[in-house]
Amino acid sequence: MSMKRIFQKHLSMKTPLTLMTAAALTLSATVTQAYEPEGKVECLAPADPGGGWDFTCRSVGKVLEDLDLVPRSVQTINMAGAGGGVAFAHTVSKRAGDDQLLVAASTATTTRLAQGQFPGMNADMVNWIGALGADYGVIAVAEDSEYDDLPELMDAVREDPRSVKFAGGSAKGGWDHLKVLIAAQKAGIENLPRIPYLSYNNGGEAMTQVVGGHVDAFTGDITEAQGFMESGDLRVLAVLSEERLPGKFSDIPTAREQGIDAIGPNWRGFYMPADISDDAKQYWLDAMDTVYESEEWKQVMTQNGLMPFHMSADKFENFVHSQIQSIEDLSKDIGLIK
Amino acid sequence: METLGFLVDGFGVALQPHNLMFALMGAFLGTLIGALPGLGPANGVAILIPLAFTLGLAPETAMIMLTSVYAGAMYGGRISSILLNIPGDEPAMMTCLDGYPMAMKGKAAEALAISAVASFIGSLVATVGLILLAPLLADFALTFGPAEYFALFMLAFATLGGITGKNPMKTVVAACIGLMIATVGIDSTGTQRYTFNVLELYEGVDFIIAIVGLFAISELMFFIEDRAGGGKEKIAVNKLSLSWKDIRDILPTSLRGGVLGFVAGVLPGAGASLGSFISYTLEKRVLGSKGRFGEGDPRGVAAPEAGNNGASSGALVPMLTLGVPGSGTTAVLLALLISLNITPGPLMFTQNADIVWGVIAALLIGNFLLLLLNIPLVGIFVKLLSVPPMYLLPIVTMVAFVGIYSISNTTFDLYFMVAFGVFGYVLRKLEIPLVPIILGLLLGPEMEKNLRHALEISDGDWMVLWDSGLAIGLWVVAGLGLILPYIVGPVLRRRMKAGDAQSD
C-alpha cells in the first residue's frame, strides 16, 4: 500500500475533505498523473456468486483489465446479505476513502434505499459512479391468454383490480412488483394496493406458474423471459423501454406506443465509498465512459441481453436520487411504507 | 427421443477431464465416508459441500462431485457392515444380516465383490428409471399450482419420519425447529421477523451454514468427547475368488432389488433404508426355503445393496423435478443447488439442462468408477477403515471453516456455523434427528410462500387448498404417511430386530 493510501485511510474518518485532498496532492507530487489505481482493485458483489451483481463485477472487471484501466487485476469479492445491505453498510462504515473499491448496484439497490430497508443509511453516503447497461421490464401472459395487448390487460385491472394476478421474481414491493404498479399508475388505475402480486424466488419460477395457467400475468426483465418467449409459451404484451429494443426484440411493442407511458429499466452500475478524492472519482468516471464505449463491453452486452443505458457523474447521481424519490412515493401510495 | 439428445450433451459435460476428475474424487471420498461407521451419506455430503466452495467449483462440477459422493457413500456403507457387522450408514443395516456371516466364513472378499456388483446393478437400473421418469415428471410439474405445492410440502413433512422412524414425536419436534429457524429474515412483504436489527440476519439463516454446522461441527464435538484416538484393528481380507456363475446367481436378485429400491426412493420420505429393507424381505419371500438367508447367502447381500443404491437414484427424481427431496441426503443436495442459484423444478430441465443431464450422466459414469474402486481397490478402503479419526477429523474441520468463509468472506458466518454445531451436538445427545430440521429450514419458506399465493389467488378462501383432484390426492397420501408409521412401523421394526437377532 502506498503512503498516499495509508494517509488517506487514516485521515478520511475525521479530516475535512479539502484538507485531505490537499494532503493527497502534496504527497502525490512525484506521481505524474493526478490519480491512478495502484495494485489490486476490488469489486464488491453484494450477493453470492451466480447472480446479477456478481456478473456485473466479473464482466466489468474483465473489461477493465483488458483495456488496461487497472494496473493488475480486479478481484471480485462476494458479500451477500440483506439484499445488498451488508455490503452497503460495509462500504459506508469501513471503507470510506478507499478509492480502489467498486461496488455493484442495480435498481434493487435504489428500491431498498427508497423503502428504508438499509436502516440508518441513505444514498448520499456513497459515490454513485455510473451505469453501464440495463435490462428492461416486460409484462407478459401465457400464450393462450385472453389478453392481446397491454391496454386490454389494464382495462381488466381497472374494472376489477383483483381480476388479474401478477407473478414476479422479486419480493412484494420489489422491482418486479413496482413495474406493474408503474404501468397501472400510468394507465390511470387508482386502486393500486388491491392489485394482487405473487412473489417468487426468481423470474423462472414465476413464469412457470404463468405458463402453467395458475397466475394470469408475468412481470420481470426481458432477459429472464427470453427462454419462454422463444419456445412460444409466453407472449410479451409490452416492454417498458423508451423505444423498441434492438435486434431480435424489435418486434415487441413498448408500453409507450400503446399509450401507457411506463418506463422500467433495471440498470446495472456501481457506487464507490464516500470521501474519495476528486481526482480518483474523475478517474473512475472516465473509466466507466471508456468501458461503455469499448468493443469488448458491447460484446458482453449483446451476449448477455443487456440494453443500451449509460450515465455517469452528476447525471447518474441525479438519476439515482430521482429514482429513489419516485419509488418512495409509489411505495407510500400502495402503503408499503409510511 | 429428446431425452437421448440431452443425455448425450450430459455426457459431454460429465466427460470433461476436470469433471471426470471430480467425479472420481467424489466417488472415492463418498465410499470412504460411507465406510466409516457413523458418518452417513447426509453427513458426508454436508461435510464436503464446503470443499466445493473452497475449490470455487463451477455449479455443474460441484453438483457432479457431490452426487458422486452421494452414490459413493451408498457403496461404502456395505464395507463396514460386512467386515465389522457395524453398518457404515443406516441403509446398510440389512447388509449386515448376510454379509457378516459370509465374512465369518472366510468369504469377506466375495461378499464385498458381490455387494459391489449388486450396488452397480441396482444403481444402473434406477438411473435408467431416473432418465425415463424425470423428464415426464418435470412436464407434469407444470400442473402444480400453489395449492398443489402446498399439499406436496405437507406430504414431504408427513412422510418425513419415514416408515421405519423410531420416535415420530421427535421428528415432529425437529421439523418444527427447522420451520422456526426458517422464519428468520425479511419476509416477502418486507416485514422483518426475528432479525433484531442485525443486518446479517435480514436474508434469513443460510442453510449451507446450518447444515455444515449441524452435521460436520457436531461430529467433531462427538469425536472430542469420545477421545477415541485409536482406529480399528487391522482387518485381513481373504483373496478374492469369484466366478461368473456367482455373479449370474445374484443377477435376478439385483435387478429386482434395483427396481424396488427405485420405487421406494421416488416416494418422498421413504428413502434408501426402506429400499434395502423391502428388497431384502421380498427376496427372502421369493426364494423361500431355497435360500439360506441370515447364514451368509450371497443373495442376501445383493438384495439390500441393490435396493439401497436403487433408492438413492430414485430419491433424486422428486428432488430434481419438484424441488422436494425424497431423503435426507437429497435434502442436502437440494440446499447446494439452491445456494448455487439453481432452482430445481421443471424449469431446471430446460434452463439448466447442462447441469441436470451432466449430473445424470455423471451418475452413470460414477457407477462404473465406483465398481472399479470397489472391486479391485477395495483393499484401500479396508485399510483406511483403520486410520484413526484423529487424522481425519481435523481435516474435516479445516475444510468446513475454509469453505464456509469462502462463501461470503465474513467471520459472522463462522460464528454462526459453530453455534449450529453446538446446537447440533445438543440435539444429537437428545436423539432428535437432524434431517427434519434441514428439511424444515429448506421447505419452510417455500411452503409459506405457496400457502400465501394460494390464498391470494382465491381471495382468502381456504377451500382452494383442496380444490383440485391432484391436491386431494396429495392430501390423502400425506394423511397415510402420517398414520402408517404408527401401524406398520412397530411391525417392521420388530421384523428387522428379529432379522438382526438371527444373524447374531
TrEMBL record, chain A:
Alphabetized UniProt keyword annotations: Signal
Species of provenance: Onishia taeanensis
Signal sequence coordinates: 1-34
Protein family per UniProt: Belongs to the UPF0065 (bug) family.
Keyword Signal: yes
Protein known as: Putative tricarboxylic transport membrane protein
Pfam families: TctC
InterPro entries assigned to the protein according to its UniProt record, in alphabetical order: BUG (IPR005064), Bug_dom1 (IPR042100)
Automatic annotation (TrEMBL), chain B:
Domain of life according to the entry: Bacteria
InterPro entries: DUF112_TM (IPR002823)
Domain DUF112: 20-439
Pfam families: TctA
Keywords linked to the UniProt accession: Membrane, Transmembrane, Transmembrane helix
Membrane spanning stretches: 20-39, 45-71, 111-134, 140-160, 172-192, 204-224, 258-282, 322-343, 355-382, 388-407, 414-443, 463-488
Family matches, as PANTHER family: TRICARBOXYLIC TRANSPORT PROTEIN (PTHR35342:SF5)
Full protein name: Putative tricarboxylic transport membrane protein
Species of origin: Onishia taeanensis
Lineage of the species this protein comes from: Bacteria, Pseudomonadati, Pseudomonadota, Gammaproteobacteria, Oceanospirillales
